[in-house]
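Notes, p. 3: input format for complexes.
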Amino acid sequence: MPGPGVYWFGKEELDAALEVLQSGYLFRYGDEKDPRFLKKVYTLEKAFAEYCNAEYALATSSGTSSLLVSAAALGLKPGDEIIVPAYTFVASYSSLIFMGLVPVLAEIDESLCLDPSDIEHRITERTKAILPVHMLGNPCDMDRIMAIAKKHGLYVLEDACQAAGASYKGKKIGTIGNIGAFSLNIFKTINSGDGGLVATNDKDLYEIAFGMHDQGHKPNRTGVEVGNRVLLGLNFRMNELSAAVAIAQLGKLDRIVSTLREKRAILKNLISKAGGFRFRTLNDPDGDCATLCTVIFDTREQAVKVSKALGSKTVDQSGWHVYANMEHVLAHLKKIGQPHTKGSYPKTDDILSRSMNISVGVVDGGLGAGWGININSTDSEIEAAAKAFVSACS
Ligand SMILES: *Cc1c(COP(=O)(O)O)cnc(C)c1O
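Output follows (394 residues plus pyridoxal-5'-phosphate):
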């Protein structure tokens, strides 16, 4: 039950992957003089930077590694605090925790993204950054978040893992803060099985992120570096096969997003006649990926009744992505003296207990979006789903 890119896997991905296998070059580096070396990772980086209108893009092995190298690029040090929403995928926390950082959780609002009004009172002298997560393809309220960051001198690391293709007021998300992390795992808008991307306009951040992902090397390993490496890195490289598939998917991204928007508009229009709920807030209705259609019921009882009738779950019951359901994260938060019990973020608990995610592009029970439509649904399938929803509401 994957993301929309999987539904649209086709000849483009197959040909691109075969071409790489036939070239014999699967590693991101190869003999530049050999015309068989296709430089797919390099090409993906250029294409993604252009797509985002960013100066630099870096391909990595996953969204988790993208977050990790981005945090390292910002120079965040063990003990530094970083403000993260209480509703996100576990990797938003684990990547920071493995860097020795302290995730300070904050509430979400009805966009299901970080609530800008819950940030400032959590800032301490140790706070160094804010990590807004563009949850379920929906951009955060970046104007307010950037204003807070500026006022307090904080970095902004955008977790855009669920939102490749989204934009905020005309700018591609991931390029509004200092640096942005993307994922290419199968549940995202586009995918290469696994993989990640980083986008930034800052050359220094790009170079450190590159070094972190490639054993301390300068971008693309140009020149003699032995004796000159200033950075100790790890290996979070992407390989040529993944990049070939990612390039093919990137070519479909705008069409995926526009198709999802059309299908969701039809669905929203049909279900809006059932009362008792509102759609979640879209901070930029023209920039949202439309991978999901989230409805927030007036009461928890109604949310449970409707989701049960459709064989789905309320978001708080969906297992993943909810802080209170992450026992391993809670155990760590307890160890470092941060709030670590269910109920610590009451506004988030309340909103998620009344929310249901209807699939539009991402069909994923782990998101509570096991029910709904998909990118290939026909008008009559959308009508049937809408009808089922409306009748479950009555
Ligand atoms: C998927 C996801 C990640 C991690 O991406 P991987 O490619 O699975 O490592 C990080 N943050 C969020 C919000 C995600 O949804």
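The chain has a mean pLDDT of 96.
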